[in-house]
Amino acid sequence: MSISAAEHYRQQQILNSSPAERVVLLYDGAIRFMMITRQAIEANDIQKRFDNSQKARNVIQHLLETLDMEKGGEIAENLSNIYNYLLRQFLEVDKNSLEAVDEILKHLKILRESWAKIAMGEKEGAKDTPIDNIMA
Questions:
Q1: At what angle do helices 69-93 and 46-65 cross, to 10 degrees?
Q2: Which residue from 106, 130, 56 is spatially nearest to 64, judged by alpha carbons?
Q3: Domain 18-124 -> CATH class
Q4: pLDDT by 10s per residue, the chain, length 136
Q5: Which sequence spans correspond to the domains of the chain?
């Protein structure tokens, strides 16, 4: 079974990423899936909306499940609250709510930007980055 060049590149990108960069990649995927979900709602393509909102939901669920609540303290608790809020928003997405899609996108973009800054700090050699204490 051969994989496309794009898929091979994506696999290499993941393998060569720091933990924070992997989180950024997860946010990128969730944002991409939610953008497709938005387009599907506008086009009244229920199956495409379902498929892509489910993929985004799975990413957010994964992020929630990999939080280290013991080490992460208040930051992990806050992220848990945000992720749970976003997961509840999918109830409205399932009713074709563009407002819910935009609400999820807004939060994902803010979180992605924050994690991108953490990843940049890792690259610049910052010691004891928050990722070490937040994600299991």
A1: 170
A2: 56
A3: mainly alpha
A4: 567 877 656 566 666 678 899 999 999 999 999 999 999 999 999 999 999 999 999 999 999 999 999 999 999 999 999 999 999 999 999 999 999 999 999 999 999 999 999 999 877 765 555 555 566 5
A5: 18-124
CB 86 within 8 A of CB 59: no
| DSSP for residue 17 | -
CA torsion, ordered 32, 57, 115, 40, to nearest 10 deg = 20
* AA letter at 114: S
CA 30 to chain centre: 5
At which residue do the structure tokens 């960069």 appear? 21
pTM exceeds cut of 0.90: no
